[in-house]
Here is the input.
Amino acid sequence: MATAARRSIDFNALYSSSIEKWMGSGKVEEVIFSANQLIWLLSKIAKEVGQYGFEIVQPLMTTKNTGVGWFQYDDTLSIASMGGPEAAKFDMAFLGGPLVITEQEEIENAEPYQMVNRLKFKFDQLLLSMAEEVNITGFRGSGVNTKAIDGLEDIVHAETNTGTLPNLTRAQATQVDNVYGGITRVLGGTTGWENYTVDVTAASANTFGAFTDNAYKVFELLYIYCSRGAIRPDIILSSLLPYLDYHRLASANAQYNREIDTFRGINLGHDNTKFRNAVWLYDESAQAHTDAGSDAASGEDLVYVLNSSYLKMFVETGYDFALTPFQTPVDARISIGHVLWRGQILSPNPRYQGVLLGYNKTA
Here is the structure.
């Protein structure tokens, strides 16, 4: 009696070898992460690959060592008990997508080179689909999917500050009201786990129209609040309107230098849009969503002040966009493989991060 044999058994090795070749030299990560400028940047400067297991534990120093102090020769040294650390916990998130070749496709594309062409189309389709998912969750995070990585809105929550604009203090700006890493962060910054937040809705000038506008003054304060000693924010990430307003403001006040000995004209452009030492990036998705905070309305423009020294990307060993072998299930006439990533993004010290909300969208 004849049996219904499938050529996919022979094709599976071709599928795997072709995909592995296309995945070489970090191409997959480059395509998928480049959809979100912040995640792409973190993958370059803040990625740590290791074995993390079920979750990442981030110890928090919530109290000082009260025994520290000056003493003389015959003084009794302190034996005061030190406060133990509190721990924030972050689940590792899985990202994956299937590559499926049906028996019908194998019949229609009988030659190996035809199957490679069909596979390349599906591979590119998978990467672009994963890139779109990363772009969405990179900002909204758990707000769009509880299984996703923590997005920027989880880490740097947009919650109203108290105090008079622009005469704010650090304490007034440590405002947030959400759960991060299993720890409830409260308005007023009493847990030490809060980020800085400034709401310029009520400011007399809540755009970057001039260096004297209250919104700009408060933005400068926010940059200072996110700094400690030699540590300075190095990334400004905003939606498009604040970026354009600041870029035009900076351009109008730029200094142009003429080199007399080697004069080749005057440079009227910018290699990068920068605020002090921070590079200013924009992304249309860097707007508030329904989960951004009780005070940031959906669609509202946001300006994030970020410190990459306190942003981390953790990736599980063996899951840095890894390909599973192509196999033929016993109950389906297909060949299927998966591209998998497992990791998490977090801030071990949100006090170095901040967000400005209430920007005038009608300007």
